[in-house]
Amino acid sequence: MTIAAAIAELSTLLGARLVTSQADRTLHGQNETYYPLTPPDAVAYPETTAEVSQIMAICHAQDCPVTPYGAASSLEGQHLAVQGGVSLDMTRMNRVLAVNAEDLNAVVQPGITRIALNEELRATGLFFPVDPGANASMGGMAGTRASGTTAVRYGTMRENVLALEAVMADGTVIRTGTKARKSSTGYDLTHLLVGSEGTLGIITELTLRLQGIPEATAAATCRFASVQDAVNCVILTIQSGLPMARIELLDHMMVRGFNLYADAGLPEMPHLFLEFHGSKAGVAEQMASFAEIAEDFGATGWRTATRAEDRNALWKMRHSAHYASAALGKGKRLWPTDVCVPISQLATAVVQAQDDAVRLGLTSTIVGHVGDGNFHAGVSVNPEDADEMARAEAFTKALADTALRLGGTVSGEHGIGLGKQSLMNKEHGPAVAYMRAIKQAFDSKGILNPGKMLPPLAMAKAAE
Amino acid sequence: MTIAAAIAELSTLLGARLVTSQADRTLHGQNETYYPLTPPDAVAYPETTAEVSQIMAICHAQDCPVTPYGAASSLEGQHLAVQGGVSLDMTRMNRVLAVNAEDLNAVVQPGITRIALNEELRATGLFFPVDPGANASMGGMAGTRASGTTAVRYGTMRENVLALEAVMADGTVIRTGTKARKSSTGYDLTHLLVGSEGTLGIITELTLRLQGIPEATAAATCRFASVQDAVNCVILTIQSGLPMARIELLDHMMVRGFNLYADAGLPEMPHLFLEFHGSKAGVAEQMASFAEIAEDFGATGWRTATRAEDRNALWKMRHSAHYASAALGKGKRLWPTDVCVPISQLATAVVQAQDDAVRLGLTSTIVGHVGDGNFHAGVSVNPEDADEMARAEAFTKALADTALRLGGTVSGEHGIGLGKQSLMNKEHGPAVAYMRAIKQAFDSKGILNPGKMLPPLAMAKAAE
């Protein structure tokens, strides 16, 4: 029972779709952030659920680790095969299987990306709203319980996955959920798999909730004298029940990044980027209500964008935040992190993060989906500089501690992956033992994305 | 290790709050539907989480079944101690622990009821929207993943429980979730416990999402020549993206029930009962848009209610559907059942249910939260009449089969409890084995609400 034996059997099963070339292994071992190159032993390219089931049966028999791979846009190394074995590349399973326009849902394979899905949906007048910025795959987005800019209005993957098909550790294929909008039957395995980072099963099909493309859409930006003013404006907006479609905070460092990376030409002050969805009258009413709140906090420099191309330019810039943050640290890598706090604690958390970065001598941006209380810090690091890496780690830990102290969570959307395992016990305490019990019950051999999310027992003991 | 030994220990722990009187046991063995009286061996009245933990530790050591008890409004016998042991009456843990108005959430104990919670919230301008009709307890509503009339707008308990505290089988206290609106850390134990019918842990605290009381609210009713017209109006309304707060279907039999029970004086035709929430202008816009759709399907007999007392009278009548259905069968009990289907299949499902009732010679109402594709049938039965009970069971099974055939679920909100275990394998197939694995991992002694939800293995085998 070895990885080599599994690869030999998989090669027989998949032929040329089981690849062990250096180039392909290297590609699948890369990541967008600071984790070192981690090539798997082989890459498998299944084309059907039945093939995924056969692959899992072989790897189960041979005790061979399997790490699912989508768009590789995860930010905590979730797709890296840290214990070797097979990188299960789902990108060939990228079809839309059905669009049920009448029921506002679509059935898709996990390899389809967010942008490709919305391209295919365009003619139907419907769209899939969850937008983490990166052109992530649906399987990966479900795996990390992704959210992003529109979650404040439409929810995260948690609210937008109705049902799943998944292949379990031994190759068993299960279906969770139905096409009905709700159900009270049985344990909620859909929501157990969403956010499980590929450690409980391989998602092979998703039924997703869709939304009607709104009759009217408008975007706007404005700026504030201080980050507190900007955040307090957000807090009051959410508390007022305004159905914001997007409400994004950029701190002055993030704006500097956009100026460098995208020649944005914005004053280096805290900004809010906004989007409103609704009927024409509804959007006008929302914009007026928001402007009234924002002006109380001294908002200036209003720009609005109602034409699609202007809005797209705005959000394209916003979506380049990762690269714009990286641009601040010439030649460095980016250590991105995120937390989510109750919205009443948002100003405290953001200011604390800014102060921590200064105190630790780090260059960091802050940008966030602040309507949810969720924000990112992007620290420029040189992975060769042990001292800087240690300070970046201290920053991340301090930010996580801040979030927990304020009643929040150590990640709103990036997940745990490799980077935040030491925080699991801090956040979840005795509940971690029940997560371990589920992992053991579903994957007793520990072959599904091993080394992710659940901390090694030694680490858990040390943290106690 | 016996139930008697557990009761003796619990008596020492709780004193007068461990009750074995015939009267109290009988009270806790009753139910709203057709299940026979099922008294527990004893009733425990804990007042703190620490006491619940001690109770579970004792019952775990003694292998004594524990069945949580809230408002006893469950419709599939979830609160009945079918294997004896202790009925864990949570009604003394009924406090609001915190209202975080700024964060739109509240922390409550499980014994508080829906109406009591909203009374306490009134001064804050916030409300808890989930409304299953019955004045259920929050713990019970989470346990059965309840929803009701407003789920179409605000979601079910699945969407409205942010975090939980729970006591597990051996007395371990865990916390799941945080006060942040979203998180990507760890397995989603909150959603695993929501809907688990008390079989995985005892909920001792809930953090609930709240909503701002809308600036304007209006209610309306109208009627249609056929149930198809009414349902097709609902389908188009939902597909148009109108943010309905309530959209309820009553078939002609249900209207007859209201006329008998509440002297409603309504023509015995299919009706829709509606509610609109929003700004004043928004509500007016929504009502006009709905009226335009409804008139295309021949809606007549419009009545509107904008004053609070008129709206309350309307929804009080709607909430009496259980008793109004019972009124149709003089001296009989009610066998209520529910299913949920994709909305495009709603007309097919409703008409099939009506036809099945006629075919089987049964008196049944249909009333439902049709915006979700969810509806109830209420069959009048005499539990002494074996033939009628067999026909009612055949009706329930046929309705469940219809729902599954149309891509739906065998229960949208009543749950599985005692009554629908034989349908678990039909709906979930191989996934049931993974539910069993979770149950085994969390409660290896099987003391938490035994005999509920998961079918006995013999039944599961027979169903294959």
From TrEMBL, chains A, B:
Which cofactors is this protein said to need?
FAD
Question: Has UniProt tagged this entry with the keyword rRNA-binding?
Answer: no
Q: What is its EC number?
A: 1.1.2.4
Extract the Pfam families matched here. FAD-oxidase_C (PF02913), FAD_binding_4 (PF01565)
The cross-references to InterPro entries, in alphabetical order and at most eight, read: FAD-bd_oxidored_4_C, FAD-bd_PCMH, FAD-bd_PCMH-like_sf, FAD-bd_PCMH_sub2, FAD-linked_Oxase-like_C, Oxid_FAD_bind_N, Vanillyl_alc_oxidase_C-sub2
Q: Boundaries of each FAD-binding PCMH-type domain copy?
A: 35-213
User: What are the alphabetically sorted keywords of the record?
Assistant: FAD, Flavoprotein, Oxidoreductase, Transit peptide
Give the UniProt family note.
Answer: Belongs to the FAD-binding oxidoreductase/transferase type 4 family.
Name it: D-lactate dehydrogenase (cytochrome)
